[in-house]
Amino acid sequence: MLAELNKLAVILMEDAMNIEQIIQNINAGISVLMDKESNNLRRGLNELNISTHLAFYLKPYFSDYDVDPEYNGDIDKPNDRKALHIAKNRILEIGRKTNMKDNYKLSPDIIIHKRTTNANNLVIIEVKKDIHPQCDKDYDLIKLEHLTIDYSGNHYNYRLGVAIVFGTKENTGNYEITFFQNGTETQQNKLI
User: Fold this and answer.
1) Rg of the chain over CA atoms, in angstroms?
2) Any idea where the domains of the chain sit in the sequence?
3) Which residue in 24, 105, 113, 177 has its CB near the most CB atoms, within 10 A?
4) Helices in 87-129 by DSSP H: which ranges?
5) Contact indicator for 55, 62 with CB cutoff of 8 Å
6) pTM here?
7) What CA–CA distances, in Å, run from 61 to 10, 27, 58, 127, 155?
8) Mean pLDDT by 10 residues, the chain (192 residues)
9) How far apart, in whole angstroms, are the C-alpha atoms of residue 122 and residue 136?
């Protein structure tokens, strides 16, 4: 009975926030970041600085969820650590080295979720600065593709994956957003 109630609670929470609301909330958090942290972006400070501030500014917009920067916990794994199986050819396509098991440890920049379950993973956000190498940006896109679909044992199934590339130095104030849903890069107006 308790397990059934927990499943129902998860379903109700998922339905409580639609994709349009999620995107509005993410955009609102980005606006606050741009307003309050433009000096850090202009100086080109560390990506961790930017993503941690963004997580902080997103919290009020996702008050029913946990908003965690650099969260690597996985309640469903024996070692309680996130890891992702990525096909070797996808890694080679972007010029990165593969590992023996095609299994990659993860610490996503920001996740919006419930810490006690993988059944309610709402949003995963990867942040990069415009000055990062393209292969690093591409690796984030591959991770988001895999984290938004049940693929080869990956069980995270985030409702929305978001890659944000922030402009730094003379490009401060500019940013690009790429969305992923169901393992596919998706234009904002086609998200469901």
Assistant:
1) 17
2) 2-190
3) 113
4) 88-93
5) no
6) 0.84
7) 19, 10, 5, 18, 26
8) 45 66 96 96 94 98 96 76 69 71 78 91 96 92 89 81 96 95 81 62
9) 23
